[in-house]
Amino acid sequence: MSFVFASPDARALPLHILEPDDLALWTAQQSDFVRAWVEASSFKGALCSALMVPGADGAPECALAGYGTAKQRARTRFALAGAMAHLAPGTYRIAEGLPPEDAATEALGWLLSSYGFSRYHGAAPDLPMLVAPEGVDAARIEILAQSEALTRDLINTPASDMGPIALEQAARNLADEFGARIEVTAGDALLDANFPMIHAVGRAAAEAPRLIDMRWGASGPTLTLVGKGVCFDTGGLNIKPGSSMGLMKKDMGGAANVLGLARMIMALGLNLQLRVLIPAVENSISASSMRPQDILTSRKGLTVEINNTDAEGRLVLADALALADEEKPDLVISMATLTGSARVAVGPDLAPFYVDEDAIADALSQAGRRMADPLWRMPFWEPYEAMIEPGIADLDNAPAGSFAGSITAALFLRRFVTETPSYVHFDIYGWQPAPAPGRAKGGFLQGPRAILDALPTLLKL
Fold first, then answer.
1. Fewer Cβ close by (within 10 Å): the C or N end of the chain?
2. What is the model's pLDDT at position 347?
3. Do 17 and 118 fall within a single domain?
4. Do 53 and 179 reside in the same domain of the chain?
5. CA distances from residue 452 to 111, 259, 459 in whole angstroms, order as listed
6. Choice among 35, 240, 370, 377 that is catalytic
7. Pick from 444, 412, 428, 398: nearest CA to 150
8. Same domain for 349 and 446
């Protein structure tokens, strides 16, 4: 799967995109044969429907794609991609019916519909290809699709093949592709380099914990991305029940998403200085596991009481955020599959985010709508600060009770970013629970397209 558009010179079937109210007018302008074919097929222009129309020799002459009503499209992220699934393999060009304001989104959805995770079960099937619609930036859309495919592949790969070592290699491969610089601190060297909480979380696993540090760009504003790279999460000594452990290969979804975003930035050649920090660990169980009620001293000097070893993501992020903060970049963004509370609050489709500045929140929210990458702002609610202060230490990694879990986790992380002008935290899910147009079931990108679109505003590019 290359996630590219067909050549404009390719022989392509015309694809007519039709809403239900437009169908009668369109068929009235066609031959008797075509009218009869459409009527016999029961094609009504419904959302996510399609029809191949043969010519006199029986070979396809054109195709129809149902575009539904505006109300229906508002409930479907990639409407045209739903029709693509019902088209025969081949090459298509948009003949009519696609609103110019929808062209870029629908073209992206078409490319994303080509995604399938086939590492363990053979070659992908032949799929319909699209000539890029007129007026869209085809090269940019291809980069977005290819970068999302990277994110999906990383999340979909099980921990047997995507542990801390493999995640490091994925970052190295990306650095090699775009000429980035990379340094990795692993094992007991984390203690020497003052990353005690990354070490404490990952020391029980077979593969040593590590901090991946990648840099790209020599000029422009400074942006640091921090992604949670927990390659598998047993919960540690507070072990998860089996029903909660089944999807824990995706607990490195924050790392996968920041690598996807980093790929977009580098492939597009944005004028900024990028740094990517990924604490890569497995939260496992052995004689060296951290214990409930242990107290850890973080890189920033804040002490943390461990009241649940299954709240490990915020610990590894805290050390990485403290490192990011030391350089005082213009913007720090963290992404993590951090809390179940966020899923309870907004479900799997929305990516909740936290930021203090209203202008940044507005820019991200608007970009999410433009880029079919929906976001939802959540509050850094100051009155809840007391909930993360246990008394015996500076911070509590798992406040008692079930209230406001995503907010208290975000407040915990904010304690480690005190010098940077702006900080945004995303508590993502990173998983598509059921197939939808342009969104295969499995690992999923949430937030990077919106962030990319908002960067000119956020960093004054």
1. C
2. 96
3. yes
4. no
5. 18, 13, 11
6. 240
7. 444
8. yes
Give the model confidence (pLDDT) of 260-299 as tens digits.
Answer: 999 999 999 999 999 999 999 999 999 999 999 999 999 9
* Neighbouring C-beta atoms of residue 48, cutoff 10 Å: 21
Question: Is the pTM above the cut of 0.90?
Answer: yes
- 181 burial type by CB count under 10 A (0-12 exposed, 13-18 middle, 19+ buried): exposed
Angle, vertex CA 221, rays to CA 355 and CA 251, nearest 5 = 50
> Does residue 8 sit within a domain?
no
314 is catalytic: yes
Confirm whether 7 is domain-assigned. no
Residue 1 has pLDDT above 70, yes or no: no
The three-state DSSP-derived secondary structure of the chain is: CCCCCECCCCCCEEEEEECHHHHHHHHHCCCHHHHHHHHHHCCCCCCCCEEEEECCCCCEEEEEEECCCHHHHCCCCCHHHHHHCCCCCCEEEEEECCCHHHHHHHHHHHHHCCCCCCCCCCCCCCCCEEECCCCCCHHHHHHHHHHHHHHHHHHHCCCCCCCHHHHHHHHHHHHHHHCCEEEEEECCHHHHCCCHHHHHHHCCCCCCCEEEEEEECCCCCEEEEEECEEEEECCCCCCCCHHHHCCHHHHHHHHHHHHHHHHHHHHHCCCCEEEEEEEEEEECCCCCCCCCCCEEECCCCCEEECCCCCCCHHHHHHHHHHHHHHCCCCEEEEEECCCHHHHHHHCCCCEEEEECCHHHHHHHHHHHHHCCCCEEEECCCHHHHHHHCCCCCCEECCCCCCCCHHHHHHHHHHCCCCCCCCEEEEECCCEECCCECCECCEECCCCHHHHHHHHHHHCCC
Average of per-residue pLDDT across 139-163: 98
396, 389 contact by CB (below 8 A): yes
| Active-site residue identified among 314, 414, 415, 449 | 314
% pLDDT > 70, the chain? 100
Residues 392 and 305 sit within 8 Å (Cβ to Cβ): yes
Do 106 and 146 fall into the same domain?
no
Distance CA 143, CA 43 (A): 34
297 is a domain residue = yes
pLDDT by residue (tens digit) across 35-71? 999 999 999 999 999 999 999 889 999 999 999 999 9
Rounded to an integer, the average pLDDT of 61-84 is 95
In a domain, 2, yes or no: no
CA 312 to chain centre: 21
